[in-house]
Amino acid sequence: MIADWMRGYATRVTRTSLRELIDRAGPFASVYFDSTDSTADARRGPEPRYREIAEKLTAAGASEQMIGALGIAIAAGPTHPGRSGRALITDHSTVLVDEQLRAPPSREEVRVSPLPYLLPLLEQRLPRVPHVVAAVAHLGARIVGTDHNGDTVTRTVDSTAGRLPNRRGRGRPPRAARRQALDLVRHGVHRIADETGALADQVQATLVVLTGEPAARAAVRAAIESGRAESRGGGAATANPWPPELATPRRIVEVDGDRRCAAAQIDKIVTECGEARQRTVCDRFRATRGRPGLTTGGLVDTTAALRAHNVAHLLIDGAALAHTRILRGAHHTEVGIAAAELSGHAVIRRADEAIPAAALAAGSEIVPVTGELALPEGVGALLRPPE
User: Fold this and answer.
1) CA torsion sign, 211 to 195 to 122 to 286?
2) N or C, where is the chain less crowded by C-beta within 10 Å?
3) Mean pLDDT across the stretch 337-348?
4) In this model, does residue 185 exceed pLDDT 70?
5) What is the pLDDT of residues 284-325, one digit of tens each?
6) How many whole angstroms from its chain centre is CA 262?
7) CA 380/CA 382 separation, integer angstroms
8) How many other C-beta atoms are found inside a 10 Å radius of the C-beta of residue 252?
9) Which residue has the higher pLDDT, 139 or 199?
10) Which pLDDT score, from 0 to 100, does residue 179 have?
11) Mean pLDDT (whole number) for 358-379
12) Which residue(s) pair with 154 in the sheet?
């Protein structure tokens, strides 16, 4: 019974970015499974599914704390209508990733490893484009930024904080009250524009979507575009780590409709932009394959580029790497196939775990391409332009 496994265990679920995740101490349990709730599944509850996963975790060497934490997470949901999957990653006691997948994974995966297994999660998060969505009102906004790994950052702007008139302000002339109200709105617009632009820079967004009150979002858009024009005329531009052909100008889009309608439109826009970005990366790799300084492929050359922090986009075929092992040295980016290439003591690691961890540590964008490109030994890279 799940209650028996859960008894005596406390669990925490922490929203952890993938970059933060690889710097935590292992071992990790990584679980991917079909979470579709059929009528029969609903009657049986989560226990049969959990027992199967718990048995596999035990066979893989998971601790009782790991199994207990995952059991609580599985029992707690979330549920999702239609076909879906679930990704769960935990360290020795804390559930670090608990994410609903868009579709069931191609096969159930239950692992216990020194590194987290992230590729199935990255495959499900794609197509992904770095973007910011701001739900705007006259005096505030909720702003969500998503980076190229699918990790999110949320900010809330409340321009009334510390600026509301006190009760003694009542009775002022109507003109003064109107002026104060207009100042407050202008202050809100500029704060929202500044926070949206800063978050877009942080996640290196190529797309900004504005929704909410039409007049407010139009004013925010104008403020953002005015700020960008001033930046182009004056201060230094932010360094772009991607090849010039992939450095897409930032696009600003406004979306109308109620919350549900706007959410569907935003999802469609982000998906289309992500698919276009993925095609561009793959097309550039095909067009420049074999040209020194532009692309590389195979384990020897790709791991060398990762060690040098020279990879802009890591292209990876998880299926081709499923049974491959490589060496890892003292740091995540210290990966290779010969101990002499590495610093410190070299340990054997699964390639489909160590190579994505190296890319995350180096700030490279990971592009899963299983079935889309034939990559030598399952890996390839678009290299960063020389500085």
Assistant:
1) positive
2) C
3) 91
4) no
5) 999 999 888 899 999 999 999 999 999 999 999 999 998 999
6) 21
7) 7
8) 17
9) 199
10) 61
11) 92
12) 144
pLDDT at position 369: 92
Span 244-260, average pLDDT: 78
Higher pLDDT, 208 or 140: 208
Q: Which of 41, 140, 35 is nearest to 98 (CA)?
A: 35
Q: Hey, what are 184's tokens? A: 């407050």
Q: Which two structure tokens, joined as six digits, stand for 101?
A: 């997948």
**Using an 8 Å Cβ cutoff, are 266 and 133 in contact?**
yes
| Three-state SS letters, the chain | CHHHHHCCCCCCECCCCHHHHCCCCCCEEEEEEECCCCHHHHHHCCHHHHHHHHHHHHHHCCCHHHHHHHHHHHHHCCCCCCCCEEEEEECCCCEEEEEEECCCCCCCEEEEECCCCCHHHHHHHCCCCCEEEEEECCCEEEEEEECCCCCEEEEEEECCCCCCCCHHHCCCCHHHHHHHHHHHHHHHHHHHHHHHHHHHHHHCCCEEEEEECHHHHHHHHHHHHHHHHHHHHCCCCCCCCCCHHHCCCCEEEEECCCHHHHHHHHHHHHHHHHHHHHHHHHHHHHHHCCCCCCEEECHHHHHHHHHCCCEEEEEECCCCCCCCEEEECCCCCCEECCHHHCCCCCEEEEHHHHHHHHHHHHCCEEEECCCCCCCHHHEEEEECCCC
Distances (CA, A) of 104 to 107, 124, 236, 284: 8, 9, 46, 30
On the question of pLDDT at 357 being above 60, the answer is: yes
Q: Which amino acid is present at 126?
A: L
Report if pTM > 0.90. Answer: no
Region of residue 184 (phi > 0: left; psi between -120 and 50: alpha; otherwise: beta):
alpha
Dihedral of CA 336/342/346/347: which sign? negative
* 27-58 pLDDT, tens digit each: 999 999 988 875 445 445 557 778 889 999 99
Residue 211 or residue 175, greater confidence: 211
